[in-house]
Write a structure and sequence with these properties.
By secondary structure, this protein is of the alpha/beta class. Helix 5 packs parallel to helix 6 and helix 9 packs across helix 12. The relative contact order is 0.09. The protein binds uridine-5'-diphosphate-glucuronic acid. The site of uridine-5'-diphosphate-glucuronic acid has 20 residues, from helix 9. This is UDP-glucose 6-dehydrogenase. It catalyses: UDP-alpha-D-glucose + 2 NAD(+) + H2O = UDP-alpha-D-glucuronate + 2 NADH + 3 H(+).
């Protein structure tokens, strides 16, 4: 078993650290945020993730994981240091690599024995070379430090499961020593390991995420056409899915992809291409379709209602997908301001995302409209003139058409996630609009 340090305790770093401890390694998670470190020491996860706190507790009491702000002591005698800090999007679409560069320098100034630095954060092709250069420039002790790429493929909401049961581990290395060490670290996971060079590993991450984003945008594009020609996108997707070359996953049309990854990684790869004098037309198309898709339902509803002024608008779901409290690039963030500008009185329900949303749109009067956060769906629907579904939470899926009909003043539903049957809604007397299906 190895001594592992992990820099950054976001989705990537913390989940990786906890899972390394779970398979028996000795792990120290490093974060600059004292409060976060205190929180984790008391067993509380700073992120909402199924099963994570339980694993944190088990491994903490077993003495396999600790949390600290003291990077020097964590890095000095580690066999491997995994970097999982953020690479936020900059206004021009490029990735901000300053957090990675800072960690690289701290590593160089701290290590006292040979060690492998492993970049888990999503980084532009060639970044690992730069990280290695920074480490060589600032290295204090005469020790061997190499850099490997090991991109992460977990999805929020199922992060622990995705890590422990990953479909593949990608390792990008430039030496046999690095390849063997990283392979041994992952041995206890018993997962398929794909070993390539560093630049290919970096590219695999972007190419995978952008392919999935493309798949979603393609289905959204086709969905919009389905509406115009009278086809049903769900039947179309079902028919397509029998072709194993296409597969059945990520064919769900809806209100566009959100989250911290697809929007950022599509723009980043487009930027990387541009930097290299190449235009990545397919990825650009995925970005463009997604932008339009986010407000598709709002535009439809606007045409139907003319104005939202003074209307009670139920909003069900605020997060970018279920199973997370993350709002980044969520459809709600595009639509709520439009509704408020129009003078809507919004009643918003989300089982875990409301608190974060209220930080951006505080409860009460908001511009011409207002927003009220409710703890139960019925409260949002009672007397509502129109309802928008932005996130397919289980409890939202469970609402019956009869409930909409009974509770709403006007049973008019705009569903961005295609979670109800068109005929069921019609039979119950609900006017139902969704994506790529008959109105
Ligand atoms: C995504 C990838 O799925 C992970 O493999 C990757 O590791 C991660 O990004 C990352 O780079 O860190 P995540 O952003 O957590 O994971 O969420 P997804 O479940 O992929 O969903 C992304 C968005 O696509 C959501 O808004 C979701 O509603 C939307 N989506 C997904 C669709 O609109 N249709 C689909 O069929 C699937």
């Amino acid at each position: 078993m190895y001594k592992i340090a992990v820099a950054g305790t976001g989705y990537v770093g913390l989940v990786a650290g906890v899972c390394f401890a779970e398979v028996g390694h000795q792990v120290t998670c490093v974060d600059i945020d004292e409060k976060k470190v205190e929180l984790m020491r008391s067993g509380v996860s700073p992120i909402y993730e199924t099963g994570l706190e339980e694993l944190m507790a088990n491994n903490y009491s077993a003495g396999r994981i600790e949390y600290t702000t003291d990077f020097k002591s964590a890095y000095k005698d580690a066999d491997a240091i995994f970097i999982g800090v953020g690479t936020p999007e900059q206004p021009d679409g490029s990735a901000n690599l300053s957090y990675i560069a800072t960690v690289a320098r701290q590593i160089a100034e701290s290590v006292e024995k040979d060690c492998l630095v492993v970049v888990k954060s999503t980084v532009p092709v060639g970044t690992n070379d730069k990280v290695e250069q920074i480490i060589q420039d600032f290295l204090v002790k005469d020790v061997k430090v190499e850099v490997a790429s090991n991109p992460e493929f977990l999805a929020q909401g199922s992060a622990v499961h995705d890590t422990l049961h990953a479909e593949r581990i990608i390792i990008g290395t430039e030496s046999k020593w690095a390849e063997e060490l990283l392979t041994k670290i992952y041995e206890p996971f018993h997962l398929p390991i794909v070993s390539v060079n560093r630049r290919s590993a970096e590219m695999i991450k972007y190419a995978s995420n952008d392919f999935l984003a493309l798949k979603i945008s393609y289905m959204n594009d086709i969905a919009n056409l389905c509406e115009l020609v009278g086809a049903d996108i769900q039947d179309v997707a079902m028919g397509m899915s029998f072709d194993e070359r296409i597969g059945s996953k990520f064919l769900n049309a809806g209100i566009g992809f959100g989250g911290s990854c697809f929007p950022k990684d599509t723009k980043a790869l487009e930027y990387i291409a541009k930097q290299n004098g190449y235009e990545l037309k397919t990825v650009k198309a995925a970005i463009d379709v997604n932008k339009e898709q986010k407000t598709m339902l709002y535009k439809k509803a606007s045409k139907r209602l003319i104005t939202f002024n003074g209307l009670k608008v139920a909003v069900l779901g605020l997060t970018f997908k279920p199973g997370t409290d993350d709002l980044r690039e969520a459809a709600s963030l595009e639509n709520v301001p439009l509704l408020l500008e129009q003078g809507a009185d919004i009643y918003a329900y989300d089982p875990v995302g409301a608190e974060n949303f209220a930080k951006v749109y505080p409860e009460g009067k908001n511009g011409r409209g207002s927003i009220t956060y409710v703890a139960n769906i019925e409260h949002a629907l009672e007397g509502a003139n129109v309802c928008f579904v932005f996130t397919e939470w289980g409890e939202v899926k469970a609402i019956t058409p009869e409930t909409y009909k009974k509770l709403m003043r006007t049973p008019l539903v705009y569903d961005g996630r295609n979670i109800y049957g068109v005929e069921d809604m019609q039979e119950a007397g609900v006017e139902y609009h969704s994506i790529g299906r008959k109105p």
